[in-house]
Design brief:
With 339 residues, the chain is of the alpha/beta class. It folds into two domains: 4-121 and 305-322, Nucleotidyltransferase, domain 5; 135-300, Nucleotidyltransferase, domain 5 (2-Layer Sandwich). It contains nine helices and ten strands. It has helices spanning 44-65, 85-102, 111-116, 167-177, 184-192, 215-231, 235-266, 281-294, 310-322; strands spanning 4-9, 14-21, 24-32, 75-81, 105-110, 135-140, 145-152, 155-161, 270-274, 297-299. A five-stranded mixed beta sheet has the order 3-2-1-4-5, with helices on both faces. Strands 8-7-6-9-10 form a five-stranded mixed beta sheet. Helix 1 (44-65) runs parallel beside helix 2 (85-102).
Length: 339
């Protein structure tokens, strides 16, 4: 029997639905909320309201693109956390309602587990991808920065994580200081490509083992901007591209150095990255160079799978389902779900 999975993702400000058949992607629809841009960050109440407006049409479109009806679906996989509670409740409630109405099985998926397996995604006409285990994954997003040893699709171990801010959060908060808007990471990336990454030296934290810290870097960045503007009120406009390039280089080096340390100590040469920050051009270039130097087999997710999407949620649901797992209707939704 072919396993047909409907995935639903609503952890933050993207409403997404996807359909997988036997692990292959047949549709992936994402509705991104632009309303948050003028506020410089996601407004939880506005996000949950937008999910309510979008979710029916998004699911309908995903089924139509896959040329399936809801009756064809075997399993509904939805994000149960972590994320914004109001947003999560919209997706989970909709998934449970569909399951009750159609007599379908459901699986609640950890959002981070979805990111972990995002580079596994293959569309219906692409050849199968069978990863080699174990592999190291650097998961970098707006809310999380972790190094994970992946032993199988359902078995993994976190060996390093941030003790304060995430890398994506550092990008966005520094972008806000620069008046660049939200989300700030992609804007910094674009400006950095025109600047001199060696023009400014920002402090790097000295954190033991494989853990990360970005709060000190943010403080160093803020003090530098404050002091330079005091000397020259036009400092930002005169040096914006160099500031962005230097900041990006510092964040990328912090991430890459820890990943290299983990690869050396564990002896693992299968390496992947995932999460929103894995779309950063500076990080991708740095890791490609390191992979060549260290004989890594590097897996980079397609850019369309780096952001939040239901395809990765459906994929985790598929892997769990074929191993015999599924959840009852009382599966909880948790804003701070552990990974």
């Amino acid at each position: 029997m072919r396993v047909k999975v409907l995935g639903i993702e609503s952890s933050c400000d993207d409403t997404s639905a996807a359909v997988l058949i036997d692990g292959k992607l047949y549709s992936n629809v994402i509705n991104s909320q632009s309303i948050h841009q003028k506020y410089g960050g996601v407004v939880p109440e506005l996000a949950s309201r937008a999910h309510q407006q979008n979710i029916v049409l998004v699911v309908k479109e995903a089924l139509e693109l896959a040329e399936l009806s809801f009756a064809d679906i075997d399993l509904i996989a939805f994000t149960r956390g972590p994320g914004l509670l109001g947003s999560l409740l919209v997706g989970s409630s909709f998934a449970k309602g569909l399951a009750i109405a159609g007599g379908k099985k459901i699986i609640g998926v950890n959002h981070l587990h979805g990111h972990l397996l995002a580079h596994f995604l293959r569309e219906k006409n692409e050849p199968d991808f069978v990863p080699k285990y174990p592999f190291l994954c650097l998961l970098v997003s707006g809310g999380h920065t972790q190094i994970i040893v992946v032993k199988s699709a359902l078995n993994y171990e976190i060996i390093g994580e941030t003790i304060d801010d995430a890398a994506g959060e550092a990008f966005d908060k520094c972008a806000k200081v620069l008046g660049l808007g939200y989300p700030g990471g992609p804007i910094i990336d674009k400006l950095a490509q025109k600047g001199n990454p060696d023009s400014i030296k920002f402090s790097k934290p000295q954190i033991p083992n494989f853990d990360f810290s970005f709060s000190g870097l943010k403080t160093s960045f803020l003090y530098h901007i404050r002091d330079q503007i005091h000397k020259n009120p036009e400092y930002l406009s005169d040096n914006l591209e160099n500031i962005c390039a230097s900041l990006q280089k510092t964040i990328v080096e912090i991430l890459a150095d820890k990943l290299a340390k983990a690869a050396k100590i564990t002896g693992i040469k299968e390496i992947s990255i995932s999460g929103g920050v894995s779309a950063n051009s500076g990080l991708r270039t740095q890791l490609l160079n390191m992979a060549e130097k260290n004989s890594w087999n590097l897996h980079l997710p397609k850019l369309k799978y780096t952001t939040d999407n239901a395809a990765m949620i459906a994929l985790v649901g598929y892997y769990r389902f074929i191993e015999g797992y599924y959840d009852s209707l009382d599966v909880s939704t948790e804003a701070k779900l552990n990974f």
